[in-house]
Structures are given as C-alpha cells and as structure tokens.
Amino acid sequence: MKRAAFPVLLFFLAGCASLPAQKGGDNRELNWSGEIRLDKTLKLSRGTSLTIAPGTVIRLGWADEDGDGLGDTSIHLEGGKLTSLGTPEAPILFTSGQAPAQAGKWGELRVDFGSVELKYTVIEGSTRGLHLHFCSGLVEDSILRQNHDGTRIGESTMVFRRCLFSGQEGKGFNSRASRNLVENCLFRGNKRGIFLFEGDEGSVFRDNVFTGNEIPFRLGDFYEGELKLAPNRWDDPTDQYRPEGSTARVEFVNAPVTGAGPENWPLLWVKWKVPMEGYADALTADESGVYAVSFGGELKRLALFDGSLLASAKLLDTLDSPPAPGRVNNKPYLAVQCWNRGIYLLDGETLKELDSFVETSSPADDHRQSSPLIAGGKLFAATWAGKVRGFAITGGGLENLWEFAAGGPFRGDLALTARGELLAPSGDGSLYALGMDDGAKKWEYKARAPLLSGAEIFEEKVFIADKGGVLHSLGENGKLLWKSALSGPAWYARPLLAEGVLYQGDDDGGLSAFDPASGSLLYRVRLEGGIRSRPALAGGTLAVATAKGFLYLLRAADGFILDRLEIGESSLASPAVLGKLLFAGSRPGMIFGLNIESAGKKN
Fold first, then answer.
1. In order along the chain (603 residues), what is the average pLDDT of each group of 10 residues?
2. CA-angle at 589, arms to 586 and 590, nearest 5°
3. Residue 478, SS3?
4. Burial class of residue 518, CB neighbours in 10 A (0-12, 13-18, 19+)
5. What are the residues whose beta carbons fall under 8 Å from the beta carbon of 28, sequence distance 6 or more?
C-alpha cells in the first residue's frame, strides 16, 4: 500500500539556465524518472528532446518573476521533442511544488518549434499550462486541471483526444491561428471551455462534452468569418460565444455524446442534483433512498437513480446530522435530531412524525449534533446537554428507558460494537462504552482533547480521532493499542476502515492512510479545504469532500488524485456509496447523485 520510493532529482537553477550535459550521455537526449523538483525555470538547449518515464512526478516551485502574482517557474524546450507517456496505473504528473495544487503556482510547460506526444499526463496548478508554438503532435488520455489556462497554442497542428479540461480559472483550451483536432474530450467547470483567439477556421471540434462551464465556447475579439462545430454535447448555454459587436458566426450542432474523457480513468459524473432549503450538511443512503437534511429544517427522501422526491417533512429547526434509518419488527423507521433539541421518530417511508422527545437546554446548544442510532428495537441519541438516552420503540412510539450523563456535550455520531456496547464520543474528551439495555458504563477511554467525531469499529478494535489531531486505536475494554499524529485537528471527520486500510481526514486538508494493526502511516495527501466528513470507498477509489466545496476522487491504493469536482461553497456531508452510486451534499444547499465512470470502463 505504500508509494514506491523513487530517486529525487533537485535542480536549483539560477534564473533561466540550460541543463548541463548528462555524464556519459548525449546532451540532446534527456530522460527523467522518479521525482523531479525545479525551483527555477529550466530552459533546455536548442534541439534537446525530453523523455519522461511513467510514474514520474515533476514539482515546480513558486517564483513570480514579473510581479503579476502568478507563478513563472517553467520548463522550456525549443526544436526538440517532448515525450511524456504515462499509463493509467503510472501517470506522469506536472504539479506545483507545494500541495494542494492551485491555479497560477508555477508557469508553463512550453515547447517551440518542436513535437509533442503526451499520454496519461496530468498538468495542474500552472499559469499557462501546455504552451505550444509552431508545434505538431498528439495529446491523448491526459488531464489539464486547476490551471489558470489549460493550454496556449499558437500556429500549431495538434490532436487532443480523450482528454479532461477541468476547473481552469481562465480558459480550458486556448488557441490561435492553428489547425487542431479536438475530439472525445470532456470540458467541465472551466471559466471558458474553448477560446479561439483568431484564425482557427481549420480546426475540428467533435464528440466532446461541455458541462458546468461558465461559457463553454468563446471567440476572441479578432475572430472573423463562420465556424461550424461538429456534433458535441452542449450541456451549457452557447449564446455568449462572441464578443459584443462581432460579426463572426458559429453553428453549434448538439448531439448525445458518451465516452468523453480519458480511457480507464475514473471520473465524477453528476447524474442529478436536488436543491435544499439551506445548508445540506448531512445525508444517509440505503435501499429505500437518500435521506437528506438541511439547515432549513427540511428532510427529504429521494430516489436513488434520479433524485425524484419520494417523501418530505418539515421540522421546527435546523438539521445538521445524518438521519438514522432502522427497522423494528420489519417496519422502517427514521430517527433525527433537530436544533430545537427534539429527538424525532419518523416513519421511514412517509417521513410522518410518530413520536418525539425534547431534551433540556444547555450552554452547548449550537452547531453539530450527534446522529442517533436504531438497533435492537431501541433508539439511542446523544445530545448537546451531555446526555445519552435510550428509548424503546413500541407501537410506533418512544418509551424512555435510561439516560447517561457525561461532562461535556455530545456531537460525534454513536456507534455499536459487536459486543453490544454503545460508543458515545464526548466533548469532555472521553469515549464512553455503555450498555444498550440500561446505559451502564462498561468502560471509558480518556483522550487528551475533545472527541467530536464518531468512532470506526472493526471486529474487536475501535478507532477514533480527537480535536487535537491524534488518531487512537483501542482494544477490548478501551485499552490503548496505538496513537498516530494527523496533519491537523479532527473535527467531525470520522475514520473509515475498508479493505484493510484505515483512512482519516483532518481540518488541515490531510487525508491519511494508516495500517490499522500498527498505526504506521502508509501515505498522506493534502487536499484543498479541511475535511470534516468521512471518506467513502467506491471500488478502488475514495470519495472525499472538503470544506472548500470540492469532491475529490482518489486512488485508494496510494492517494493519487484522479478527479476533483467543485460542488458548492463548502461540503461537510460525508459522501455515501450505494452500489455504483455516489451521493454528496454541499452548501449553500444541494444534494448530488453521481456516478464514477471512465471512457473505457464503468466502475
């Protein structure tokens, strides 16, 4: 599960210098592998060809050489050939020197008067992306994401096939006076999908998908004449394709297109979305549908495949913790907590209120509530008032059985061990194990910081993270087995143990993978935005939501970022996976139903 260890080549170049000749080799034939770091612009001598091995990572450090606030550290070839042929298993990555990659943190990958061949190559976090002048070549199955501009192409003849252009702050594909073929590409979430400055009348754009772009296609001020775009799928409006006063004309041919984007490369595809009344910070999914809640007190049961409304209810105050479905005597129920301190038992199909209990007020009555739990014919709820309550579900009503009082509020979700112990993490820093029948304390584990997230349970072991940034592994009766440090505090991020690996997010955007037996770190990846939710495993990929509003798709084996989709201003809801379906929630208020698909294979 660990990443392979590669040799690291560090080039500390003063200004814009040429790379010295390789010892015992040809100065014009340069080969890179492993991990390369450039802290200054690297300009190769004229005619040099650069070949990059699969799995190579090139990190370009920050340097603003012209004072415009954008990174300028670059790689520049003139008159040679750039060959960057990765594979789905070992892609080649050009990225910023410091994670997470953000637009404008380094300059460009530039080739003049040369040839280019790229495959399974990722270019992210740059100012000008792939910058080509008087070039020819082929770019296939590659990803240009989170750059200022994905490309800048002038007077070239290029083929772009099955590529992803995603999240560019400026232009996804920017070209001038060129004859390019762009086919089977996915343009998603760019400010401008394609921008043709002038003189690209001979270019062909066909069988591409445009979705979620601010403007999918735009002509420059100097573009003249008419252009017919071969069949593409236009999910975005195309009415702003030309500047004001321009006489240029574009004919858009719309057609159903499938299979856009890199082959055998999993991507996030939105299949449906449903607005909510206020922040959508929590959801749960089972075979009955998606149960989604909002800050507006709204509760919806949505159909899994199309998001259609199956049932709804309106409660008296904010809902921000996952609804808890469960069955008693084969009847479906749903339990929720509400900011009016109410604990509600609802019919699991109609969402009709059956019974409720109102907790006493406390100084902690604000923000995140614990998710209830239905098990063994009972409903359990942990409250802001520092109490855990057990109710019997009888005849569709609640019978108060017991209560347990702690020294702080409960915000983390409840969990149940195989031994029938109810685990309640408290803001007082203790994890309490309680008896289901009487609420008696079986054992207590004291962490050194508040416990705001729920516990993960596997066989006889318990895993939980604290607000101080420590992940704890406990054995029988709460005995400490090991502790490991995270890269930041853990708020509401519950751990996930899946396929023998323990995953944990933190508020600094770190997603860490641990060996659950020893606590040793397998890998850590830095994402944009804090992680206040639990990851979800879908096949060999991990879905992770962040507080900056991004939904990430990672390769579970090593944390490599396969895709990133902006779904809102913030995303605090834990993604849910059911079969081949993925569900997510965001602020200011939207529930998403997604598939994970690639052009050559559906996962």
1. 39 40 62 98 97 99 95 98 99 98 98 99 99 99 99 98 98 97 98 95 94 97 88 96 90 92 97 98 98 98 99 97 97 98 98 98 92 98 98 96 98 96 98 98 98 96 98 98 98 98 99 99 98 97 99 98 98 96 98 91 45
2. 65
3. helix
4. exposed
5. 45, 47, 48, 49, 80
Q: Residue 11's pLDDT is what?
A: 44
Strands 324-328 and 331-337: antiparallel
Multiple choice CATH, 268-597, 3.50.50.60, 2.130.10.10, 2.60.120.10, 3.30.360.10: 2.130.10.10
- Predicted confidence at residue 129, as pLDDT, reads 99
Domain ranges of the chain: 29-265, 268-597
DSSP-based helix, strand, coil % in the chain, nearest 5: 0, 50, 50
Contact 290, 280 (CB under 8 A): no
H-helix or E-strand spanning residue 458: strand 456-458
Q: Residue 602: what pLDDT?
A: 43
Q: How far apart are CA 452 and CA 488, in angstroms?
A: 14
Give a three-class secondary structure readout of 501-547: EEEEECCCCEEEEECCCCCCEEEEEECCCCCCCCCEEECCEEEEECC
- The three-state secondary structure class of 477 is helix
The model's pTM is 0.94
Give the integer Cα–Cα distance in Å for 40 and 60. 8
What residues does 158 pair with on adjacent strands? 137
Q: What's the pLDDT at 226?
A: 87
Contact 274, 292 (CB under 8 A): yes
Cα maximum dimension of the chain: 85
Structure tokens at 306: 């199309």
Q: Which fold has domain 29-265?
A: Pectate Lyase C-like (2.160.20)
AA letter at 35? E
**N- to C-terminal Cα distance for the chain?**
21
